[in-house]
Amino acid sequence: MSLDTQVNGMASRIVSCVKEILQTEEPVSRDTDLFLLGLDSITAVDLIVNLESMFGIAFEDDELIVENFSTVEKIMAHVSVKAGGNL
To answer: Of 14, 17, 24, 85, which has the maximum CB count within 10 A?
Structure first.
């Protein structure tokens, strides 16, 4: 599987997760501000738990900064680091 395919697959999975948690049909791109779509501290916890389960990773407490989860692109960057490229 090519790197582009992996990246696009990860983006699609994260977008689906975000849309489900935020219960929105609004378009979500890689740079959409998720806080403008309704992400808050409660839904961020749901998102983090789902991401950890989906990708088999665990975020450390010091990584749980809201800015790290403000866009799909930022989430992808952090998930990639945590997964060590094993997506």
So the answer is: 14
